[in-house]
Design a protein that fits this description.
The protein has helices at residues 2-12, 43-51, 76-92, 102-122, 124-245; strands at residues 26-28, 55-58, 64-67. By secondary structure, it is mostly helical. The chain has a 3-stranded antiparallel beta sheet with strand order 1-3-2, with no helix packed on it.
């Protein structure tokens, strides 16, 4: 109930609703920026203000007010209400249940700050130790977030480089395909030339063979005719010699 009143009060003052329990706003002098309180703060309140700094805002009539965290002890019912309010706020703001979610991170951080406030009131030393744990966890989370952002940027750069390389490879493949087509055209042209040369050479060989055969036949015929003529002349001359002897 107290937590609900605190959230309602923050909304009325124009502040962002928080799961951390704050006290009543205190008017501050706009010129001197001093708290208008008659009594001094206790050691516990000083520790709480150092752990969870007061919120400053401008209310109606340009009056500057601050709101410190509450130093009132909390009961078991307050813890149960805090858990219930956390679940309700997670559902209202549609926080993701898994993965990185700034909304879920913010609400759990507020819940942890409220638990630190409750514990610090009962035991300041335990509260300060929890603050160290909180700061260390936040530092680790920020480190992982930086690493995640760096890895995303690196992955995006590698993706863009690979896309550029992919386009270059596509262009290179297209160029090589065109060169292959040109070379294939040259191969086809050379093959046609080779076939033409073979055909022409075959025709020339056939023509030379035919000419050679005709030449051989002509030479044989001329030789035969000459031999026949010489033989006839020889026989005719021998016959005349015989007739003279008789």
């Amino acid at each position: 109930m107290i937590l609900n009143q605190n959230l309602q009060q923050s909304t009325e003052l124009g502040l962002a609703p928080s799961l951390v329990k704050y006290g009543n706003p205190v008017l501050v002098s706009t010129g001197q920026k001093k708290l208008m309180k008659s009594s001094t703060t206790s050691n516990t309140e000083d520790i709480l203000n150092s752990i969870l700094p007061p919120r400053e805002f401008v209310h109606s009539k340009q009056q500057v007010q601050i709101q410190c965290v509450s130093a009132a002890p909390s009961t078991k019912q307050d813890v149960l209400e805090l858990q219930e309010k956390l679940d309700k706020r997670l559902q209202q703001r549609q926080a993701r249940e898994t993965g990185l979610c700034p909304i879920r991170e913010e609400l759990y951080s507020q819940c942890f700050d409220e638990l630190i406030r409750q514990i610090t009131i009962n035991c300041a030393e335990r509260g300060l130790l929890l603050v160290r744990v909180r700061d260390e966890v936040k530092m680790v989370i920020q480190t992982y977030q930086t690493l995640y952002a760096s890895s995303c940027a690196f992955g995006m750069r590698k993706f863009l480089q690979e896309m550029e390389r992919k386009e270059e490879m596509k262009s290179k493949i297209k160029q090589l395909e065109n060169e292959c087509d040109d070379l294939q055209t040259q191969v086809n042209s050379l093959q046609n030339t080779i076939r033409d040369i073979k055909s022409s050479d075959e025709q020339r060989r056939e023509q030379n063979k035919q000419n050679h055969a005709e030449l051989v036949a002509q030479i044989k015929l001329e030789t035969k005719n000459k031999v026949t003529q010489d033989l006839e002349q020889y026989l005719t001359g021998k016959k005349k010699m015989v007739e003279k002897k008789q």
